[in-house]
Amino acid sequence: MLTNYHCLYCQKKIDRYTLYSLYIEEDSLCLDCREKLNLKVRKFQIDDCKAEYLYDYNSLFKSILLQYKECYDEALYICFLYKIDIYLYLKYWNYQILYVPSTKTKIKERGFNHLKLIFEQLGLKEVNGLKMKEEIIQKGKSVADRQKMINNYYYEGSFIKRLLIVDDVYTSGSSLKGVLKAMKGHYKKVKIVLLSRA
Ligand SMILES: [Zn+2]
Question: I want to staple 98 with a disulfide (CB 3.0 to 4.6 A). Which of 23, 127, 162, 181 is the partner?
């Protein structure tokens, strides 16, 4: 039996010739896209926190993320944790997960919470109670805008023993730093996982 599948991103045909590839190997991207994405865990520090990210910030990654986030191609969520979900689960199974919040306007426009859709596959308990003071759509790159983002979150939830904060891309870090600031004193231990780092 030969069934045709298509790469979720470039639409190229993927032939699955063997029983193995048909039933077990079920990557939603073609081999070309997968290779170019270059999955590799890299560690760095954000202030005092240990962070790691998964993908190079290359043109393919950017364009897949754009199609997913801004063109609302929801189905693409499945490609981001492919082959890394087990690693993340084994490392963070006893952590509670916190998605860096998007504005309500963005979530409404998009129709889905893009981070949650990706990371909820890990099955970690979610942290609730982090809120935004103002619905700032992050486009301002000025120092004042960044400072505003850093002070734009507050937390009204319970104490978290092990906290895992996740976001898509680490750029200026102002929203992530804002989240860390709001969570200060509310956790015992914190780690950060990002899809990529600009
Ligand atoms: Zn492809």
Answer: 127
